[in-house]
Every structure is written in C-alpha cells, then in structure tokens.
Amino acid sequence: MKKAFLLWGIILISLSLSAQTNTPGSAEASKTKPAEKKNYTVSGTRHGVSYFPKTAFSFVQYTQGDVLTFDKYHSEEVMISWLKKWAEQYPDLIDLYVIGESFEGRPVYQITLTNKKTGKDTDKPAAFFEGNRHSGEITSAESVMWLIKYLLENYGKDADITHIIDTKALYLKPVNNPDGQNMYLNTAQSNRSTVRPDDNDNDGLLDEDAPEDLDSNGVVLNMRWKDPLKGNWIPDSLDPTGRIMKRVPAGKGIYRVASEGWDNDGDGRINEDGIGGLDLHRNYPENWRPKSELTGRGFTQSGAGEFPLSESETRAVVLFLLAHPNIYVVNSMDTSVPMHLRPPSTSASEDRMYPGRPKMVQDL
Ligand SMILES: [Ca+2]
Ligand SMILES: [Ca+2]
Ligand SMILES: [Ca+2]
Ligand SMILES: [Ca+2]
Q1: What is the 45 CA–ligand 2 centroid distance (Å)?
Q2: What is the pLDDT of residues 120-158, one digit of tens each?
C-alpha cells in the first residue's frame, strides 16, 4: 500500500500544500534532515531508476540508544543491534541466528526464546511470530520487538511469563522483509513487499514508473489537477478546506488525481510500476495462483511470483515451519492471518484452482 493512501483514500493533498506531522504514511507526514548518504540504492536490474533521495524521518530511530523505547520506529539496523545485545545478555534464554537471506542479500534474523536448561526448544510446544512481511508494516516489527523485550524483562518476575519460557519455545522474527522495510524507512518510496523487479502493468518493462517526491518533503502524497474533460473528482462540500475530495463518474468532475510523480514511460498512467511488485503474502503454496492466466483454469493473482515459494523470504518461513512441527501457534504479518494448517491466500479454500480432496463417505 502506498504511503499516500494510508490515511484516507479520499483525502487528497495538492502539491501546493506542504504537510507536517509525525505519522509515517500519513498524508501529513513530514521530513527530514538530509542523511549522510545522498541516495538510497535498490538492487536489481530494471528499466526505471534504482536510486532515490535518502531521507531521515523524525519518527524513526536510526542509531541504537541506551534504552529501547517504543515512542519511535526503529531501523532494521537498530533492531538487529538489540537482538545481538539480548543474545549476549541472556545466553541461557536466547539463540540468535540468520534464518534466511533477502533478495538484496540482507540476512534475515530470528531468535529462539526458551529456557535452555529445561530442555531443547524443539522438544517444547512453540509459537512463531513474524513481523514486517510487507514493507510498510513497520508496526508489526515493533510489536515483535516489544514482545521479546517484555518476555525477557519479566522472566523470573512474572509467574506466567516464567512458566511460558520454561515450558514453551518462542520463535521470533521481527523483520521478514528487510529490503522493503529499509526502502520504506529511508526513502519516499514504498511498495508491497520485496524489491525484486516486477512488471506490474504487463508492458514488458520492469519498474519503469516509480513515484517521484516532486516537492521533496520526503513523502509521496497525492496530487490533483484540473481537467474538465476527464475529471472524476470534486471537492467534498462537507469539507470547508476544499481538500477532501469525492469521486464522481469520469467527465463529471473537476479534478484528476494521481500519486505524486511523472508518467515516466509516457503510457498515460502515472506511477503504475514502481519498485518491486511481488507480494510475499501471495507467494505461499496454499491456493497459489499465477499472475497471468497460463493454466486455462482461470484464477490469477497479481504479485504471486513465478511459482510458490519463489522468494527466499517466504521460503525461509515455510522451511522453518516444516522443520519445526512443534510450532502450534503462528502469528505472521501484522494480523492474525491463519497460517496454522492453511497459509495465507487471497481467496477461500473452496475457490482453489486445483481440486480439493475427493468426497468422503462422511460428506455424502
Ligand atoms: Ca511495467
Ligand atoms: Ca514494479
Ligand atoms: Ca512529496
Ligand atoms: Ca506511466
């Protein structure tokens, strides 16, 4: 989801209005002191640009402090520093390891949290927590960090927490998608998940039309311009400021609206194919569907990848879960998407593209 859309779909900010707040993804979000490096580079070969102005958000902590607080977001670097610190501080409770590698080659860190003196983690019932699958889901990474901190600080103090850590195992991965998370926290760009080049609009060009932060405020907002012929938006009369818009049929409106940027490839669409486009959420095997109709059976799903588990980040999750049948609770992404027995998919099991199990006697 683009940052520009995170507040309200109908709030549209003209470029002439500069915004100032402290909420990431907000139409009012602000920036920013220039960071040391001028540009942030994204790996991969694409038809569009792979570098963007590097920005430093006031609501993100980019260097580790003495105390971990949750009044700011944290860069991945800071989170890793805390994981390493905890692993040193609590050697009897924590194993820290690299469980996978992202498209850009970043290590994906995970910890196992259990009292090692009461038995191996694999001999205990376990729960798995994963954050930041999608690039902008930075709150979920913070949630996992908060959970780790809470468990560690209350071990030996809180009877329930102590019992959990003594008798259960917890596998915790704050950032599943470090490439997307880093791009989100260091540039005005945002995407669904990985940065692997992907042809969102099926025109044969990869990532050829990413948004531009035209007013250099560090955030890609929405822009509007008058077009009496094709306009499909009008100011909402309920908003005295004239900034909230509502959609009307094409040609009946005053304005047209798009996210901030140019039509880089001249196809008449603005920002239709930015960095990446694959969706780790849709890359799981259950009810996986191809992006384009290749099967003759219908059912497609954009962003699903070339094949199920084509992405290293997704593969690392599934291989770990398969290798750890002691896991009976999974909390992934930023929701309670059920991955127990059925991984996430955009459609119901009944709609799967392949036949389900044959009818059993008890079904008749
Ligand atoms: Ca394209
Ligand atoms: Ca793309
Ligand atoms: Ca901007
Ligand atoms: Ca375009």
Answers
A1: 11
A2: 999 999 999 999 999 999 999 999 999 999 999 999 999
- Which residues does residue 247 pair with via DSSP β-bridges, in sequence order? 233
Instruction: Give residue limits of the domains in the chain.
Output: 1-30+222-259, 32-213+274-343
Task: Give the model's pLDDT for residue 118.
Answer: 98
The CATH number corresponding to 32-213+274-343 among 3.40.630.10, 1.10.150.130, 3.10.620.30, 3.40.20.10 equals 3.40.630.10
Cα(278) to ligand 2 centroid in Å equals 8
CA distance 168 to 129: 14
Ligand nearest to the CA of 29: 3
Q: Where are the beta strands (DSSP E) in the chain?
A: 33-41, 51-56, 60-61, 73-74, 94-101, 107-113, 126-130, 169-173, 222-226, 233-235, 245-247, 255-259, 327-331
Q: Cα(176) to centroid of ligand 4, in Å?
A: 30
The structure's pTM equals 0.82
Residue type for position 226: K
Dihedral angle of Cα 147, 152, 157, 163, to the nearest 10 degrees? 80
Q: What is the mean pLDDT of residues 166-189?
A: 97
Q: 55: cis peptide before it, omega within 30°?
A: no
